[in-house]
Specification:
Helix content is 41%, strand content 18%. It is built from nine helices and nine strands. The chain has helices at 18-28, 71-80, 100-110, 138-145, 182-187, 200-210, 235-254, 256-280, 284-309, and strands spanning 7-13, 36-43, 61-65, 86-90, 94-96, 114-122, 168-170, 177-181, 214-225. Strands 1, 2, 3, 4, 5, 6, 7, 8 and 9 form a nine-stranded mixed sheet that branches.
Length: 314
């Protein structure tokens, strides 16, 4: 096909197994699928998940990385390979409804000041996930690391008190389904590559809003979402990268002192609390994963400090 696509869909895959094929099959069935270019960036999968993939109206663009470059960097790779005016970053553990892409894109393009839109994510049991979130303040990050949100003393990060049943402006939509104007994505410099995985979507939405663009939840765009579909395989590393990225976010948006305080809270409170809960549940395997994550975070502190002191990206 020679016509320029109206939408680039970028999927970052790492050992996605059958989830990737199911995601692509759903994309093949969307309305006006021939106007959508799909790019899969594979981060050195070893499970054969990129073999025997279902056909698409436009030939699949497949980028194979020799090593796992992380989610943000791989997203940037996939975006750079296309030229459509809108880009959808889509997780491989999603399946989109037939009209989801058209609905989301129409909402994105309806107002030139709308920069990012997200979909209504539905779990395997058909329940709508509370996927939109507040831009985190420094004190809020610290309070949640101390589990004060679980005691009702601070608001949770996600908008748990809203059913996500109508369209509205929000601070942040989840990166599992994040559609953005290409010109805005380029102006923002893409995802910050220092976030290996997690919090890169929070950062991107915060920067888009700071640039004067709105972020919107589009309830009519529906996508099934398994959640943690590929990272379940590596629980300790998943927890480590979540904490690392959270500290990076704090440093980038709230300063080095807040990042240091969050590091102390993560090692001194958040991880010990997770360990205590695992032991209370008599789950030695989970406790071992928490300890492993703590060791990874402690070992990463020198590099983390260098990243915090580096010139911010975006």
């Amino acid at each position: 096909m020679t016509d320029r696509p109206v939408l680039d869909v970028v999927i970052v895959n790492w050992n996605g197994g059958a989830l990737l094929g199911a995601c692509l099959a759903s994309l093949a069935a969307v309305r006006d699928a021939a106007t959508v270019q799909v790019t899969v960036v594979d981060n050195a999968s070893g499970d054969g998940s990129t073999c025997n993939l279902p056909p698409l109206p436009r030939p699949l663009r497949l980028i194979r990385n020799a090593a796992n470059l992380g989610f943000g960097r791989a997203c940037d790779q996939g975006a750079a390979a296309g030229d459509a005016p809108a880009i959808l970053f889509l997780n491989p553990d999603t399946q989109v409804a037939p009209d989801a892409l058209a609905c989301a894109r129409a909402a994105l393009m309806a107002d030139p000041r709308t920069g990012i839109v997200g979909a209504r994510l539905v779990d395997p049991d058909g329940r709508t996930a509370r996927s939109c979130a507040r831009t985190p303040s420094g004190p809020g990050l610290l309070a949640r690391a101390l589990a004060l949100d679980r005691l009702g003393l601070v608001r949770p990060h996600f908008l748990l008190d809203w059913d996500h049943a109508e369209d509205r402006a929000v601070d942040q939509v989840m990166g599992a389904f994040l559609m953005i104007r290409r010109d805005l994505f380029q102006a923002l410099g893409g995802f910050d590559p220092r976030f290996f995985v997690y919090w890169e979507d929070v950062d991107l939405c915060a920067r888009a809003r700071a640039a004067g663009f709105s972020v919107r939840h589009v309830a009519g765009a529906v996508a099934g979402h398994v959640g943690q579909g590929t990272t379940r395989q590596v629980r300790a590393r998943r927890l480590f990268y979540f904490l690392r990225s959270q500290i990076l976010y704090a440093g980038k948006h709230h300063g080095a002192a807040m990042a240091l305080a969050l590091t102390v809270a993560s090692l001194g409170a958040q991880l010990p609390l997770r360990l205590a809960l695992a032991l209370a549940r008599r789950s030695p395997g989970e406790a071992a994963e928490v300890l492993r994550a703590a060791g990874l975070l402690a070992a990463a502190l020198p590099g983390l400090l260098r990243s915090l002191l580096a010139r911010p990206t975006g």
